[in-house]
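If your schedule permits, I should be very grateful for your opinion on a structural question. What I wish to show you is a protein chain and, alongside it, a tokenised description of its three-dimensional fold. Would you kindly read the sequence against the tokens and tell me how you understand this chain to fold? Here, with my thanks, is the record as I have it:

===
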Amino acid sequence: MNNINLAFGRLLRAKRKKLTLSQAEFASKVRWPQTTVSRVEQGRRGVTLHELLAVARAFRCSVADLLAELGGDTGGMNRAQASAEQPGFTPGFSVAFASESAMLAQLARYGVRFLGVETLPAVSTLPVEEAVLAALNYANEPRVFEALPSLALKNANRLDWNKLVSGAYTLRLQNRLGMVVAAALQLKGSTKGVDAEAWAALQAAYAALAEGKLDREEVVGPRPKTAEALAFLRSRTPGWLSFWHGLGSADLKSFRRYLPS
């Protein structure tokens, strides 16, 4: 069984019992069959982002609160150390998360290469969710940030969005992932080969991330050194980016360059 599913099942059962709800009563609240509640609590079934939102509403909390309880307390560990401890991540993830060259090697495995950058060969290939999470740690670099929306779109039907969103919460990178998802949604009219189910998954991810948005500014590119320059950059930041406390003169043409021709 998946460790994350087991942990979520235990959390769901504990919170349900704290409210003195039977499985049938809880099933009625989230509009699931009782058998689904049972399977989830036993760790035999994962939940989709839509289902996760329903659970959060039933418990009158945010998705962020649920994922924080699921992730547990990492104490004084830094993010790279914490990531290595999380169930469900492959051993090579912490290397890619802590090393820009290792991260770029993983992006190259998925067809993302940057001009003028020599990419070292990757020893193994991380799952695409982990490659995206590792890249989020470096998404303040414009070239990395601009490549991620198209990477998400190209792999929209194979991404485990639950793992990606929960991983971003664990690493406190939900704003950065929110910026990437928002940019991908901006490209809807320019993208071919992405079906309705994938767009729905993007919208669900957006909603789940927005519930736990951090009050922390993310700057794409060098941070301006004067108040005047900072104010000017804010004036050039589009609304879809500033919603995530992102700061940068994001140009959709830059994102489109990475889309398949």
User: Anything to note?
Assistant: Residues 3-71 form a domain with the 434 Repressor (Amino-terminal Domain) fold (CATH 1.10.260.40).
